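Objective 1b. Sequence-to-structure analysis of Coproporphyrinogen III oxidase.
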Amino acid sequence: MMNVEDTKKVVVVGGGITGLSSAFYLQKEAKEKGYPLDVLLVESTHRLGGKIQTVRKDGFIIERGPDSFLERKKSIGELAQDVGIADQLVNNSTGQSFVLLEDRLHPIPKGSVMGIPTELNNFFSSGLFSLSGKVRALEDLVLPRSNVKGDQSLGQFFRRRLGNEVVENLMEPLLSGIYAGDLDKLSLQSTYPQFYETEQKYRSLILGTRKNAAKRPTSPAPTGKVKGQFQTLRNGLESLVEAIESKLAPGSVLKGVKVERIEKEEDQVNLIFNNGQSVIADAVIFATPHHVVSELFEPYGLLTQLKEMPSATVATVAMAFPADQVKQEDDGTGFVVSRNSDFAITACTWTHRKWPTTTPEGKVLLRSYVGREGDEAIVDLSDKEIEKIVLDDLRKIIEIDGEPEFTMVSRWKKSMHQYTVGHKQRIEKSFHEIEEAFPMVKLAGASYEGIGLPDCVNSGKKAVREVLDDLFQ
């Protein structure tokens, strides 16, 4: 048995979902395996959860940040199970999604996988593309494999395989809705390496994607409809944050305190806070955005390459209406917007349809998005100005009578990290530098190996395994 003197101090810096899951699993492992571990979670703001923020207002459940996660990525579901709220998980309602091209909503062709056509009849009947654009996309069936060595942009890869029209009118709106980025800058290797692997294996992206899609079973929902592939929590994603925080050991969370400086002391790290206090740690998990970490390690000449990673500024705009004031496409759940269209919004979710548990009976909840890489000025406008711009855009697309009952604007400055070409190599270099100079420090979070909520949890769990192996193996 280890003595109390052998207790190891681990500090997790950053209280978003990555830091929360790191702290939770550190304490869980310590309890289950008898590790003498003292865990401290440090968050610079006065609340935990990072971009996960749920507002519960007048019977509405409104997400200011992310609203869901992919069910097939298991880590969030497992975390919900571990904190005792798995029974609150709900899947999205499925329905038709659209692309706004110029002034018209076009259904996304059935069988499209991230914009790659797999059902050619539906693809050819779509109004999203000209005949020449459709014919150009079919060249994928005969084109040879890519001979590009190393990384390339999503735009370069997909334009070569499918042509400009499919990329501009379908793939770019879909993918930029996820990354708020520029396809001609985003890294294929770090965002969708599976498409490169599909091309290398099958040669044709269309044929390979069709074969891969056929292997995936679709689960029926209790209603008989195909079950949605996304999940959230019935009372909002912040329910997960609240549940995790309730499971953390008393006194193990420090809010409203920022790490200002770090000092290496033999095989430990001294963290100096902005309130003048400090703590000596045997291991540290930095679950903060990359720009925060790079500033802390700049005095040591480390992580300078992380400054090359841009982050886009975006905002979400939620609007509530009486149901009789809004007329929409039947069975529609939302739309994304082509860059070739003259609109400020980049996407809109008809939240009351996609997530029925979020909206009271007789009401409509529309959640629009503004801002993306290279088009961020709108986010700096006042709430009233943003509301007017978004409402004007929506009225050009769907019939809306009257004003919203309320509008909620949520700004996210430099929050959408851009995995540009060469990202994987920069991250590998960063991890190697830290391992060499500060082996007791681990980096985790959305800046590195995935921006989705499950990716963040996986990143935190990976850092936990590395810390525990270092300290107790």
